[in-house]
Amino acid sequence: MSIDVFDKCLVNSFACYVVFGAIAMAAGCATSLPPYVSSPAFDGRIVGVGYAVINAQPGESPEEKRLMAIKASKLEAYKSLAEQIYGQYLESRGTLSNLKLSDEEITSRVEGLIVGARVVSIKPISSDSYETVLEMGRAKSIDYLARKNDDEETFSTRQGSE
């Protein structure tokens, strides 16, 4: 008789673990939406500025290095726009040894889609650097992302019904 009681307890425990596991898996599901979307009510302009040093670029000739610096400054400007729209993910790690901070590491990441940015200027700011300025309307980018998500949902719904 005690074996039957033990088996019932084991089955009940297993059922609880299955239910909790299912809840944990459902809570961990990811969405295709960006984690932090700024307020679409703001209709101002966003300006992204990027800089790059010519001599720090790879290339065999000064002209090639100059072109790479222009491209690098433009990418930095796009990164600046993405930071303003989506925010910046920061991860920090520290090591404590003998009650002293012996090692600290901070990592940052930016991820996002920039659509509709306009190049305002690309110009040399000294004999060795370039500056790129981009601008865009915040509401336009948010509207585009919302339409894109709606289009994907409509497409997946159509695919599922066929």
Helix content estimate: 40-55%
Radius of gyration: 26 Å
Number of domains: 2
**Strand residue content:** 25-35%
Q: Determine the mean pLDDT.
A: 79
Neighbour order of strands in the largest sheet? 1-5-4
SSE order:
HEHEEEEH
If helices are DSSP runs of H or I spanning 4 or more residues, what is the number of helices?
3
Count of strand segments? 5
Structural class: alpha+beta
Give the terminus-to-terminus CA distance: 56 Å
Tertiary shape: elongated
Poorly predicted parts: 38-42
Instruction: Give a quick account of the main beta sheet: strands, pairing sense, barrel closure.
Output: 3 strands, antiparallel
Polypeptide structure, described:
This protein is an alpha+beta fold and 162 residues long. The chain folds into 2 domains: 1-30; 40-161, no CATH class. Helices cover 46% and strands 27% of the residues. It has 3 helices and 5 strands, in the order αβαββββα. It has helices at residues 2-27, 62-86, 138-161, and strands spanning 45-53, 89-97, 100-109, 118-124, 129-137. The protein has a 3-stranded antiparallel beta sheet with strand order 1-5-4. Mean pLDDT is 79; it is low at 38-42.
SSE order and pairing:
Elements: H1 2-27, E1 45-53, H2 62-86, E2 89-97, E3 100-109, E4 118-124, E5 129-137, H3 138-161
Antiparallel strand pairs: 1-5, 2-3, 4-5
